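Q: Two folds, back to back.
A: First:
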Amino acid sequence: MLKKISSLFTGDQHKRTIAKMVSVVDAINALEPSFEALSTEALRAKTDEFLARLAEGESLDALLPEAFAAVREASKRTLGMRHYDVQLICGINLHQGSISELRTGEGKTLAATLPLYLNALEGKGAHLITVNDYLARRDGRWMGAIYHLLGLQVGILQMSNSADGSQLAYLYDPDEHSLREETNLLRPVKRVQAYQADITYGTNSEFGFDYLRDNITMNWDQRVQRGHHYAIVDEVDNILIDEARTPLIISGPSHEDSNYYIRMAQVARALNPEDYEVDEKDRTVTLTETGVAHVEELLGAPLSDPDRPEDINPEQARLMGFLEQSLRAQFLFHRNKEYIVQNGEVIIVDEFTGRMMPGRRWSDGLHQAVEAKEGVKVQAENVTHATITIQNYFRMYSKLGGMTGTALTEKEEFYRIYGLEVLPIPTNLEYRASRPETGLIELDDRDEEGYHYNYYANSADPQKKALFFKRKDYPDVIYRTAEAKLRAIVLEIIRFHAIGRPQLVGTTSVESSERLSDRLAPELVRRLLQTVLIREAWRQKFNPKGDDFSAPKELAVLNEPLNKLRMPELRKLASQYGIETLDLADVSNRALLLGALHLTDADWERLQPLFDAGIPHQVLNARKHTEESIIIAGAGAFGAVTIATNMAGRGVDIKLGGEIPESLLVQVNLVLASVAKIDPYSLTMEQRLAEVQNLNGELSDEQREAVERFKAYMADMERVRALGGLHVIGSERHEARRIDNQLRGRAARQGDPGSSRFFLSLEDELMRLFGGSQVDTLLTRFKFDENMPIEANMIARLVEQAQTRVEGANFDVRKHLLEYDDVLNAQRKRIYAERDLIFNKTDLREDVTEMLRTELGPRVKAGVEDPEGPWKLLAYLEDVQPNLNTPWVSFPSFMYKLALEQLGQPTDESDLTRRILALAEEAVAAEHTHLLGNIKALLDKSEQTLKDQTAERSDALDAYLQTFDPREPHDLQSEISALLQVPVRLPQAQQKALLEDPDSMKAPLQNALKTGLMLTLTRRLLLTLERRFGETWSLKATELATQPWPDVRKQILEQVNLMTERRAKRLLGADGEIARDLAANAEHLTLALDDEIERMRLLQLTTQGTRVSFDAKSHRRQLTGTLRMTYIFSLANLLEKIPLKDLNEQVLAHLEEAEKVFVTVFGNAEWEHLRANNFTLASLPQNTRDALSRQLGSERLTELQALPLDEIPAEEKPNVVLELGRAAQNRIYRQLLLGTITETWVEYLTKMEALRVSITMESYAQRDPLVQYKSKASTMYTELFSEVRQTVISRMFRYRPNLPADFSGTLSGAGVSPAASSGESPRAPQANAAQQKRRKRH
């Protein structure tokens, strides 16, 4: 607003900005003669001079005039192209970090070479971002000659289509020749080399994805980018606005097993109606109690943790995720409605348009569930590994510039989002006309149809003959219907094609392009012209003046779709107005048809072939960038008709007469310079032609051929110019004005003649949404002919207002997306900074130890205060740091440390055996007590659930019976089963009794309810307990369901006691498994008297069992290891007696000692690896040698590093092993931290996306969704680092080196337990089932 007010008092701010730059332009122009006088070597040496001056402190701004002059001279010598003054202004503006709006055809590609060269001198890299690979390749190779002459390297990034997903990169090399356009003058290099080049060309996707890849790599050497210093974004509105809605995402398969989807699809198909409830409104499917029991029976596994029925462990959460999507696929998504199956693929059908959407997939595993349901191949599900919005990527650049032909309408967004100002730069002609020394003046006139236009003439010419033109923008024409508009467009195409004028027809979608292309087919062209012929005959007979705009009733049939018009009806109608035949080529129809199309007899020769052949044309849908550029470049040829989406072909100019090869232009310029001895670079094409025609010197065959080709091109160009140049037809207004302006800008390039016209209908989406119906009502009231075009400023203003509103709405969408991503962006920067720190920090051991201390303090406190006792803490510590057994050193877990303390120092083998058996007996008793307590709690909860469900469903049954109307039709069995949520079987007699006297069936139905609920409950209980004990029980659910609950409870507890007694008898006592295993290891009993580690192994032996089982597939006997008992519950009682502070210190001291032990283990393993492979210390990485140098001394290391390891003195080995271990541990920690952060970040991104989607519901509670998002995101981010610490701690002690093949750290038992009476430990305790992260699938 301030700028608008300022302009009222001080004039046009843009003109003032350009005026300031003109003085710099004059300085550059003044340098031109001196740079022309330089030799090639001296011109190249200018780069070295500039670098030296920069090093001495001179600024880029001070170097700018000379640097720009050097680039201009290099361009003249290599490309035969001289930068115009407006291109210099564009370059200055780009260097200052702003957007240059330079019209199409004004040479943005060449202008960008100026600031790119200047900013590349700082040695930090300069990037040119394009919209597609073709332009990156073309521009990098084309402009590469300029940079090469000046001594700079040019890198080019390309997207690979290979299956391995490799990325392509090249350096510009004038000596690298190839017959393939894709690689000519381009030398393949590694990706990092393209970024190390002074200037790098590539698409926004390639730059953005490389940034993301760099920040998820596990190896620092695999990173390719070197920072974000300076960039110019070509077609900046397309990249920074149009593509800003879609973030850059790197995703990968989630590695979910397709077998889970297939298995769950089978489960979903096997369910009965009473097993689930469908909510169509909320699009959810939930299992009933019966359904849960049925699913558990089908899967043979419980869906909730028996220890904590209200919670689920990670594996159960995973199964529930598969099941949830399979239920939705089975009962909510229907074939040939939401999707179809075609060629073995599930293709989504758009719910609004009914169109197929190939390539689109439902998320969260739903698509895989539908594929499993339909029996087609289940494709891998993808998860997000890294993501960033276009906005936040480009905001990382220290300085950013942009260029496009259409930016001014979006200047607010550019400034508010990116901090970029927009400077509209005049065309070369406008600039020259503003300079008095050029002699050009701008005039206006009207054409033969009365339309206003502007042109340029020589001020000294008395006749003021037009030398150059401004584009004619005809007023929009509006039709009532889309059909009438489409016909008018085709007639416009026919008329201009008949005279040979090239046309570019812009559409807003691929579908629109194809629909219009179909209309140019021969049959539809003939049918359209036949309707035109009849209308023209009617007009001449009834409305010769053309002042009646009402719709004639007798011609209403002509408004039917062209493919539905029947020739007999048309002939009958035509005969009424004097048309004898509808043969368009008949001589009797010629004058009538030419008059209707506003053509002359001279045009008949080109018009007549269209009757049989249709209109030859090209359709461009922006699918293949290479073809796109070739097609669009030929759109200016004589008679060319090109249909393209509005955005297609950006970056490629349309030249009248077709594209002149740049190589030909270079040849002609060189001929004029060498033969005519003139400066050709400041000449216009017409001036070049005049000089070529006046050539008198001797020409070589190659020069003569180039001159003749140039003359032929100029003749074609003049032919097209005489017809009015390129005519642009807009088939529909785009929702953004700049897209319409971009389409218009294709015409009238660099002073060529050209025109544009947009065709609209009141049925167009933009018109329909913003007031078109009101105008249509008005036209209908006055019976306005739908084929009559309307040119009304009022409607044009309505369209522009609608576009402004849509632009504002789209800006809000992009701003909204950015506001949310800004939250994630701050977190992303911190995560990526943490990864960089991990890569670059020399020693990470202190960081990991600090994580250990931070995480374990609260964990120990929570474990001690747990109402169930500290057994979960002990189980957690056992999971974090299990026993370590290696040939060099062994170390017990914290649980085994406590067990060893309890075991004490034995006096002999029998005493040791007695002590171990006593400890085991105590452990089994404690485990049984814990198990019995859990089972009683489970039974209590089951009893309460049974009571609640019985009462609730009894009430529902009473209500049903009270309102039951026997006169209405009923499916009694289904109704009652659904009501009670249990299977109910009603014989005919009972159904009859229910219809006659509903109350009489109350008692039988209540009995059926109780029995059904009891059956469901007992099935779940038995399934859970059988899995827990690993045996099949003799109790039957069908028998228990008919008994009172106290009897059921009693029988289950009796069975539990029986199982625990049997298990204790088998494990304990003089003849138990444990005693036999100890006796089988008598030699270790002897060793254990003086060796604590041997005692640890004997204790470990007592917990390990082996059972015989049979593989269901192979029917073979196999041995599997089991956990037959645990010391966790008995030893947990000891923790209750230790003060919290002391316990915390003991745990930390133990784990920190374990870290030191691991250094020794990995040091010895590394030593053995080096020795086995005959490596010396000299082969170690430099950082490891530096550490050894500090440990041993540099002189001593020099002596030792050339020796084989076996010859290193024994007294030096411990020091070497210590440093090898530290280096190995640091490598492990680095990979552990990087892997954990990456893995956790990937899961976090999924959670954040789910949060963003769900948080919009907060607005219904009168809350600002963004505020809620920021609050919850902050909490989740804090939890993210806690999860990282937890994961690091859970894995840091589980790394193991490769151990010698003959080493076994565990002892073997005496035998195996038979499968029929395995009785292994009922359940390996999962202490952290409630606390650990639930890995639910998203």
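A: Second:
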Amino acid sequence: MPKREDIKKVLIIGSGPIIIGQACEFDYSGTQACKALRALGYKVVLVNSNPATIMTDPEIADITYIEPLNEYALTEIIKKERPDALLPNLGGQTGLNLSSQLAKSGVLEKYGVKVIGVNIDAIERGEDRIVFKETMKKLGIDMPRSTAVNTVEDAEKVADELGYPVVVRPAYTMGGTGGGLVYNVEELRTISSRGLAASLVNQVLIEESVLGWEELELEVVRDSKNQLITVCFIENVDAMGVHTGDSYCTAPMLTIKPELQQRLQKYSYDIVKTIEVIGGTNVQFAHDPKTDRVVIIEINPRTSRSSALASKATGFPIALVSSMLAGGLTMDEIPYWRDGSLEKYTPSGDYVVVKFARWAFEKFDGLEDKLGTQMQAVGEVMSIGKNYKEAFQKAIRSLEIGRYGLGFAKDFNSKSLDELMVMLNHASSERQFIMYEALRKGADINDLHEKTHIKHWFINQMKELVELEEKIISFKGKALPDAILIQAKKDGFADKYLAKILNVPEKNIREKRISLGLEEAWEPVPVSGVENAAYYFSTYNASNKVASNNSKKIMVLGGGPNRIGQGIEFDYCCVHAAFAIRDAGLESIMVNCNPETVSTDYDTSNKLYFEPLTVEDVLSIYNKEKPEGVIVQFGGQTPLNIANELEQNGVKILGTTPETIDLAEDRDRFRDVMTRLNIPQPESGMASNLDQALEIAGRIGYPLMVRPSYVLGGRAMKIILDEEMLKQYVAAAVDVTPERPLLIDKFLEDAIEAEADAISDGVDAFVPAVMQHIEYAGIHSGDSACVIPPVIIPEKHIKTIEEYTRKIAIELKVIGLMNIQYAIYKDVVYVLEANPRASRTVPLVSKVCNIPMAKLATQIMLGKKLSDLKLKKKNIKHFGVKEAVFPFNMFPAVDPVLGPEMRSTGEVLGLADSFGLAFYKSQEATQTCLPISGTVLMTVADRDKDKIIETAKNFKAMNFRILATGGTHKFLNDNGIESDLIKKVHEGRPNIDDAIKNKEINLVINTPAGKKSEYDDSYIRKSAIKNKIPYITTTSAALASTAGIKDRLEGEYKVKSLQEYHKSIED
């Protein structure tokens, strides 16, 4: 069937900000969809609120809207753009739910918008737990026994009938949000009330537990001719009970009999035919190996995290193909490298893929490292090897957690077998590392299987690795026999790990290995659905099948797994580098191991190596491809951590030198440069022990900002108020050495923070914009809301910031990008830190100002001069407000306050012609919309009271009622501002908690009382999150919110495309 001629313009809804359970895999699928539909000749309108994505770049779709993802904004866009069709299944759960809402409210029908790819009833049949159950019953497919309920009381009745433990699953959510496995009635009450609140339709399923069963997934594709193929069979190594996003898994299935795989395939086909999805669907099953019972867990009638993994694992770009099929093509019209056309596709790779998750437990005080049915991972890696052991060990060294093998993690090796077995009572992010040490201590495979439900075959593979490792360790201090080294490399042991356990330099292992002719060989993963494409993986278990040519090439090192502090923004920069290299007529080579990203799409670069970002792997590729140079400044901290070592091994680093990057990190050397340039910095010092720290504190005075050196995302950064806190911090700090000292700065309280990005060629620099943080100093820049152009920084300070930025970039001979953070304190501009690399603000500045920074920086690294680019300062008429998005709703035990350590997972952008409206839209885009009438709760710490007067007056002027707690109430009354008194929880009833639960409060403004208070006030913030009430924890954001509400009261906002905003920018 040829492409549909009844549609000309297609609307695609993106997935919004990166959150746990919905990450950059949707940037990958959305970007592919735009590519596929435009290639078919359709005009594409894209809507997404996330500025950090490639898909929201103005050249990816024909028309791009960075607007809040809600019914109002979408209705306005549909009214204005009049698309013929909506493709709903590429924006994750967000896109699917929103499409459902637009259909139910009659908007799609009113404006004649057809839904393509998946029909709206199908979403209901797949997502609504009751309808899904009826559909499965008709098909004769078994499900865990369950009942859908709308109240906690009904949940208790159902659980009593089923018997504990039971699983709570909210409808219309993703990442297991709000759900969980419960063992008693108390846990059931907590989790089911949370689940009902999280569900779009106030519905949860109470389900019999299939804890410990095998969890198996299929990715299937169907077209309009009812042709069906299975792209990938995925086996979760962690059994049921651990969310599939947290579970580590393999493709193909390694321990599942072919008969069972065929049974699962038949069930999947029956389901997809009935639900009538065109394109990709993910189907999840549980299998009880004892009774052979199979039950279906759920389906996702959309592209998902699993479909991104399946795409990269097999070379089958599911989102691209799904979009072609939605456009009317059928699989017999799409090419397949092996058998002609795509309906003949079968998974055929002669290799093993392992996916392993990356978590961020260390970022959240009080968060227990415990895995369950609610997803907690913030990213993942994928590795490819010729056998399971090789792929598994490659996955571990891809994780960027300072581990290059499974042994000797933390202090596990020093624990007894009994202690290790107790640690395995529940699944955690450390489970594989603990099992490894338990096996070393003689743990029985059956005992480990009983504890973890991980199958014997996988545990046995791990045991063989432990045995080989013990044999290797026995040669410590002696020459390692060649045969053992060869075996170790075939089993995936990294050079760096072997060097560590043998206590020799890594270089020695590398040289020895090369002398034995043992070098990485490469194999291709051919790409289906397109003509003549492949990407590559390395192995020590086969001969090389990948040729390299003599053309001029540039290599780009990616960012590895997504994590807090290093997200999709860095992938954005890497992708733009690849595009710019290609535009310059050179070949681009990408190295990365993150399956969710656009950088690991088969056609982003001329050649993609799906490999860990370690010295061993990067050097092997470098020596094979012999590029002109390597770009390391775009992938965040990941490539920078290995840049020095690469350079020492003869790698030519393009752009800013590793030496300059180190200089910016080295406090003493950087201070010398600032002194020479006459640029003020807060007083500071470096300490390797407590005595030194106390001496510095005595010299510069409290409060202090303390942190380790060489970190990203404010890792372990803290504001220290007194000596007692300093002693506690130093006692708890790990890995503090003279080489890696603690950095101690004077903390500039209530300073206004700002930052500037620069593009520099080493002799001149251009500053496209200065960003003003909305939160005061002390909140990590990645977590603070910020606005371009600034609204409260005087012009003279903006000029100073631009001048300092240029001076520093030129002095440090930066070639490429640079980001500098500033604080304005008592009318003086201080420089806080300089990062001579890409920062997370690059996509933001690029979109607000229409300056493609990563592309321009790449051109400079390839030899252009700044003067060649003819860049001019532009007059920006609109405002862009970035707001951070946090995972606190997933971690109900964590106090949701902001500080110097970054905790956000993603961001949104509000664009408007006024600052207030842009701020309002940014809040709306985070799905916590500011109220335009009602009641505000104000309860602020003593240190903040004088900063709340203007905010309170603004709320009063807009006819809001103010509720205030004792101290705040008295303070407002003393200042002539009327408020009603409300009790804190320890003061009796009715209190704040009652008022929040009774929906009597529409906005919470609460600055934390901190350590000076004897009563913990975190319940206020936690309760606001649970009850979905917007809450603000800083006085500066509270003031900005009044500007937003005021502008919004003047009328509904208009939607405007990015291209329209760019047209209005004047030179």
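Q: And?
A: The chain has a mean pLDDT of 92.
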